[in-house]
């Protein structure tokens, strides 16, 4: 079984943080903590890394999201990292 550090390293090495930065910059997407500019590639990486470890260290959480990133547990204990531009979820109608 892979260690938490190995799982995180594998995910982080495969993810294209430069692409995320370019999209954020193009869309003028900022984080509240960064005022009027997009975070750097390093800051984006650090956020993703912290979310991965937060999820790996949680026995209860199945998904954690912030700043456009979502880290979630898939079937068989696999972990996924995504950067989401848009999403929609169904909800129960009050009809």
Any chance you could write out the topology, listing elements then pairs?
Blueprint: H1 4-14, H2 17-26, H3 41-56, E1 63-66, E2 69-73, E3 79-83
Antiparallel strand pairs: 1-2, 2-3
**What would you report as the Rg, rounded to the nearest angstrom?**
15 Å
Number of helices: 3
Shape: globular
**Helical content, roughly?**
25-40%
Beta strands, count? 3
Straight-line N-to-C gap: 48 Å
Order of helices and strands: HHHEEE
Structural class: alpha+beta
What percent strand?
Answer: 5-15%
For the record, the count of structural domains works out to 1
Spans of at least 5 consecutive residues with low confidence:
none
Major sheet description: 3 strands, antiparallel
Strand order of the largest sheet: 1-2-3
Mean pLDDT: 89
Task: Give a short overview.
The protein is an alpha+beta fold. Helices cover 39% and strands 15% of the residues.
Describe the overall structure.
This protein starts with a helix and ends in a 12-residue tail after the last strand. The model has no long low-confidence stretch (mean pLDDT 89). By secondary structure, it is of the alpha+beta class. Helix content is 39%, strand content 15%. A hairpin with a 5-residue loop joins strand 2 and strand 3. The chain has one domain. It contains three helices and three strands; from the N terminus they run αααβββ. The protein has helices spanning 4-14, 17-26, 41-56; strands at residues 63-66, 69-73, 79-83. A three-stranded antiparallel beta sheet has the order 1-2-3, with helices on one face.
